[in-house]
Amino acid sequence: ASEAGIVLLLFSRQIANVARFAIMRDIPWITEILFLLSFALMFDWRQIRSLRFEGWNLTFSLYFLYVIYVGIIGTPNLFRFSGVSNYVYVLFILPIIFALASNKKIDVAVFVRFGVYAASFLSLALLVVITDGFTQLKNINTIYDGNGVAIADRATLSQIGIFGVALFLSFRPRTKADVALLCVSVPALAIDLVLLNRRSAFLVIAAYFLLLAVYEFKNIRFRLRYLWIGCGILAAVAVFVLCSDAFRELLLHSIRTMFNAVMTFLGIDAGDKDPASLERIMAQREAFAAIFSFDLKEVLFGIGIGSQIDYPLLQSMRDGGIVGFAL
């Protein structure tokens, strides 16, 4: 049950987004309910009753110390940076650590299998919803219901593709049904990613393939799975490009926005500036300014949990200083 709980925790926000998107209305507390259900599954309650955490290890200890550290350091700045939600978000790691540590052993193969099932279902469900039952092709951004309430966003939905690709590459099909599932879900996931047009998702997935090619390509079984999934994604995109003018335009738009983002980030004048990249450049400069400030105390110990930065290593250095980064 713990493996299913981890998968549910991983996909809780995505399940909630797809469900709200499907019925085009808000579903109060659905994400929170899914989170609570995931914790109920993740905890080994026999271990909790006896206050034993047999799965505790050095990694959990370092995470625990880091969260406690930046939490204490950041308490004086809790309202200074409008960081209450970020503060709660970081402290949310603590129950996750205890839930995982309550399990003596987590079966990675079972986790990957459950994850593949979840990613496959969500990829197919999202494709049906985003194309309005295969009747239209369009990019989406934030989705609102009739009352103007945001019910889904492409940043969260694109994580289905990010998690899905990682899980598919780790999955070892055992039956023909497993192979058939991948044959359907991999193309669906590829089309979802193009329609969502989330550049960060493309970059993360490209990094997956690059890193795995370097570290795992000597494994012949992995090599075949790697090539099969990569070719499946490319084939699905190629078929849609050939068969749909609308999809071709969406793909070209994705390529143009990716190019503009890279050029903007590198400071190369190539025409249109990308607003999102400009925001990230400003956030990066602010983070460096905070890290390398003249206040030795902030350089050494950080400023605690504050505003969110899109760069995890910079975030840890800014929040915890040299001490927090070392943890």
Tell me the layout of helices and strands.
Elements: H1 2-23, H2 30-42, H3 45-49, H4 58-74, H5 84-91, H6 93-101, H7 108-130, E1 142-144, E2 150-153, H8 154-170, H9 176-196, H10 199-216, H11 220-243, H12 245-266, H13 275-291, H14 296-301, H15 312-326
Antiparallel strand pairs: 1-2
Helix pairs in contact: 1-2, 1-7, 1-8, 4-6, 4-15, 7-8, 7-9, 8-9, 8-10, 9-11, 11-12, 12-13, 13-15
Count of strand segments = 2
CA distance, first residue to last residue: 31 Å
Assembly state: single chain
Portion in helices: over 70%
Spans where pLDDT lies below 50 across 5 or more residues? none
Specify the structural class: mainly alpha
**H-E order:** HHHHHHHEEHHHHHHHH
Summarize model confidence as the mean pLDDT.
79
Structural notes for this entry:
There is one protein chain. Helix content is 72%, strand content 2%. The chain has 327 residues and is an all-alpha fold. Strands 1-2 form a two-stranded antiparallel ribbon. Helix 1 runs antiparallel to helix 2 (30-42) and helix 11 (220-243) crosses helix 12 (245-266).
Short characterization:
The chain has 15 helices and two strands. It has 327 residues and is mostly helical. Strands 1-2 form a two-stranded antiparallel ribbon.
List keywords for this structure.
327 residues, mainly alpha, two-stranded antiparallel sheet, 15 helices, 2 strands, 72% helix
